[in-house]
Amino acid sequence: MGYIEKLKEKLKDISKYHQIMSLMHWDLETGAPERSFEYASNTLGELSGKIYRMETSEEMGDLINKLTQKNEYDNLSENDKRIVDLVKKDYERYRKLPEEFVKDLTKTTSNAQKYWVEARKNNDFSIFQPYLEKIVKMSIQQAEYLGYDGNRYDALLDMYEPGMKTKELKGIIEDLKIRLVDFVNDLTEKGTKPEEDFLFEKYDLNKQKEISIKVLELMSYNFKAGRLDVAAHPFTIRINPGDVRITTRYQEKDIRDSFFSTVHEGGHALYEQGISNEFVDTPLYDGASMGIHESQSRFWENILGRSYDFWKYFYPEMQKTFDQLKDVSVEDFYKAINIVEKSLIRVDADEVTYNLHVMLRFEIEEALINERIKVEDLPKIWNEKMKEYLDIVPENDSVGVLQDVHWAHGSFGYFPSYMLGNLFSAQFYHKMKEEIPDYDKMIRRGDFSSILNWLRSNIHKHGKKYEPNELLRKVTGEKLNVDYFMDYLKEKYSKVYKL
Amino acid sequence: MGYIEKLKEKLKDISKYHQIMSLMHWDLETGAPERSFEYASNTLGELSGKIYRMETSEEMGDLINKLTQKNEYDNLSENDKRIVDLVKKDYERYRKLPEEFVKDLTKTTSNAQKYWVEARKNNDFSIFQPYLEKIVKMSIQQAEYLGYDGNRYDALLDMYEPGMKTKELKGIIEDLKIRLVDFVNDLTEKGTKPEEDFLFEKYDLNKQKEISIKVLELMSYNFKAGRLDVAAHPFTIRINPGDVRITTRYQEKDIRDSFFSTVHEGGHALYEQGISNEFVDTPLYDGASMGIHESQSRFWENILGRSYDFWKYFYPEMQKTFDQLKDVSVEDFYKAINIVEKSLIRVDADEVTYNLHVMLRFEIEEALINERIKVEDLPKIWNEKMKEYLDIVPENDSVGVLQDVHWAHGSFGYFPSYMLGNLFSAQFYHKMKEEIPDYDKMIRRGDFSSILNWLRSNIHKHGKKYEPNELLRKVTGEKLNVDYFMDYLKEKYSKVYKL
């Protein structure tokens, strides 16, 4: 057996343990009984320790060493070269972090979550503050262990968005922020806000579920290789290559929540279901990055799922299912689900204001990691930025600085992916429309096959074969360009708000 | 660390893998998507291989060796002695089976199941015959590897019912068979068969589910440490010590199926939830035997769940839930769910005829293992025995010799547990009534707490601390006595059938 085959055997082994952990995570989030958690968390902890040991073993190091010798490496196929590169990158990253540090970080963040919950419940940031201080300190330490060229935040950002740099992000944001703030002001001051009351009547939960299944079928989500369940915080998870599961949630008094959560997660799931099978059990069997993954969910949720053409096709199905919509026209429904608002909560934000919420978080966390601000000042800073970007101030920290769990998880560097997802999706969309001449007509017919084929052959099938920026250039012919996103917003919302 | 602590560490490790496999099994049976099966089965195969290697390792052998030295062993607590005994027994059993043989048997039986399904679908025993022949041959080989004193079948029986011997079983059956056949004839010839049509009206599935949950709550099944799901073949499974899950199934046109499946599985689950926590992660954290486990499910399903006193309490709840029962009296309902019939299918059999179905299977498998009969003659032998015991002949093999999956699984030696469960349950019941003076009254009040406490302190909490016959004697003061079962049947059914 050659070295590359030996490596693949090891990766297959590791993959089995990931599959088991995925099933356990899915189970815990979709209805495992309360008393199961303690035992399951324990087992999960041991399994991640096991994976860590497998990924950082001397044997693994030897194999990587052998495979990166020039004569060995040059003889590998392109795919195998990429596999070796990715395994090496992870190996080196893990080896840079002392085992004690990893354990301590895991313990610290899992402990911090409890206090985050309590702080949120009591509207009291000070409960969470000491834990967040420790996490920030450890995240700085983590970045130091990992190393970086320019900005310390780069070390963390790279875990979620490989190749992206803080400097580039700052450039994007500087440009985009002004344009977004102006546009939001135009819409809310000069535009006409649509009616929306009918969205909040009582909608039968079973019928909402039927609609969720229908739209997933329409998207060609493969139910023979997946299932739909309920979770408090919807997510998509791959259990194994034949099993990519979606979760959603149903609110009786908001018809939007389940629908758009389902379509969003459906977008993630189509990506996972579309990765080439030849990559199974290797690091290539994954999304290109968090941002690229989010571009898929956001495309389906917003660009397609909140488009007029889509509703022109799908609305009769909704009217048939829900009597409450009998006297609501498709135009009014379409406008209602596209209301733009200066609101407090990121996860409820519309597609125009959403990125402002993300920028604020990025700016804060980048400053924290570079020690330019202090944890104790976060509530003040948060509120000031909210006032500046969205002209709204949270009445308490629970709907302000305490609203997201990410920092309690220690996931510094994650937030930018949400924004990048939106930007990528608009850039992909622009290219897609160039290459699928009948795009609009097909959506109006409820025929998404050309769209899905385009996504599959341009994005999905490649998995993690390319770096995100490489993939973007390969597909669209250029690097990240925020104009596509702004153009998309302007064209759509000027009409919705009759500007 | 002493040897016993080292052993316990290993057992804890093994237990983690069992927990993972349980979750995967549960998932596959309760709705995992079709395409998940191939990958999950693969992972399950590797996990069982891993457990096998852990259980038969040289290290494990050394520890057992050390712990069974007189001076070491004598210093162990009673519980630890029992742990060592059980581990040793399993270790020796596994070591007797060559790894190649185990793999071959697993492959053979998993393959055979496909042909069993096909044979059943096509009503054609010959499709299954060659696979069953191979399984019988391998089961004989297995018994030879394992070794036995008297009857070759003992080696297999002991895996499910430790300590039970073929000779003893034959003695029990010889006595019981005649008494049962006579009694069934009395009932069906001289008795008055109750009405039952109302059981087969259309019963709303959601309401059936509500009733299932209500009765489990009434039984004190702990939903915080378990959940109820749907499976084609209902089962109970422990995921971990805080998580014992039940499955049931709902038939729209039979009100009995979901109810009694739920109560049956609830009985298993109460046993699992009641084992002393000090046994967690050791072989004592298990039922005493398959037969004792079945005694718990059968007690709740039949002795309690099909009793007049129970329905006197619970029937108003049923009438409130189902309009179809509005004009049916509790007496008529009680009689309908206790109809005795000479029927073809074991799993649908009433508690009077059930053991006859089991005896027939035991007689056939014992003769197969001892090579007194041939697989090719099974359909004929089956039908002859059905005629003899139940005076009914299957019109085809699908409702005859092909009805159960057990032989395709290679589970020779399992069937007797079903009968023993019935016999144990009646013997326990007799003792329970002696020790709980207000037994009947409490059931009529829907108060099962004394009963559950009795079961917990006499049976559940002990787990696998005692051999089944030892437990039976400890609880009831005597060895297995079929009179209790016959007395119970006679008293109950003479009334139902107005003999």
TrEMBL record, chains A, B:
<feature type="binding site">
    <location>
        <position position="268"/>
    </location>
    <ligand>
        <name>Zn(2+)</name>
    </ligand>
</feature>
<comment type="similarity">
    <text>Belongs to the peptidase M32 family.</text>
</comment>
<dbReference type="InterPro" id="IPR001333">
    <property type="entry name" value="Peptidase_M32_Taq"/>
</dbReference>
<protein>
    <recommendedName>
        <fullName>Metal-dependent carboxypeptidase</fullName>
        <ecNumber>3.4.17.19</ecNumber>
    </recommendedName>
</protein>
<dbReference type="GO" id="GO:0008270">
    <property type="term" value="F:zinc ion binding"/>
</dbReference>
<feature type="active site" description="Proton donor/acceptor">
    <location>
        <position position="265"/>
    </location>
</feature>
<keyword id="KW-0121">Carboxypeptidase</keyword>
<keyword id="KW-0862">Zinc</keyword>
<dbReference type="Pfam" id="PF02074">
    <property type="entry name" value="Peptidase_M32"/>
</dbReference>
<keyword id="KW-0378">Hydrolase</keyword>
<keyword id="KW-0482">Metalloprotease</keyword>
<feature type="binding site">
    <location>
        <position position="294"/>
    </location>
    <ligand>
        <name>Zn(2+)</name>
    </ligand>
</feature>
<dbReference type="GO" id="GO:0006508">
    <property type="term" value="P:proteolysis"/>
</dbReference>
<keyword id="KW-0645">Protease</keyword>
<feature type="binding site">
    <location>
        <position position="264"/>
    </location>
    <ligand>
        <name>Zn(2+)</name>
    </ligand>
</feature>
<dbReference type="GO" id="GO:0004181">
    <property type="term" value="F:metallocarboxypeptidase activity"/>
</dbReference>
<comment type="function">
    <text>Broad specificity carboxypetidase that releases amino acids sequentially from the C-terminus, including neutral, aromatic, polar and basic residues.</text>
</comment>
<keyword id="KW-0479">Metal-binding</keyword>
